[in-house]
Fold this protein.
Amino acid sequence: MDDGKDWRTRLNLEFVDQFPHGAFHFAVGNGWSLLLAEVFRRVDAALHDEERSFFGWNDVKEKWGLLRMTHNGSDCIDDIVDWAEATSERVCDLCGLGGRLRKDGAWRVRCDACASI
Ligand SMILES: [Zn+2]
């Protein structure tokens, strides 16, 4: 899909309910865009009406090479976040292919091709 909008803009528009304080800047590499999209889809499916009325993300960022997501939701949402943060350890944050956590210099999850970038 190429509608001229980048993935950050698209996710903000598609899951606007999850960003009650306005458009969110996801402080992660482009390689994790599909992972984030899957998180927001799962959260959308998991939210019941009451929780949906107040739910919001506090932070979506990379820390020590891995995805970190904080929110004001329930344990059910925590389970989705746990899955996403664990998955980020195997997804190159530049290109989205399979990678591993590299601890030389700045910690990053990278595939072999992106490792030296
Ligand atoms: Zn890569």
The pocket of zinc ion is lined by residues 92, 94-95, 97, 99, 110-111, 113-114 (CB under 6 Å). The helical segments are 7-14, 33-46, 49-54, 75-87. The chain has one domain: 7-91. The mean pLDDT is 95.
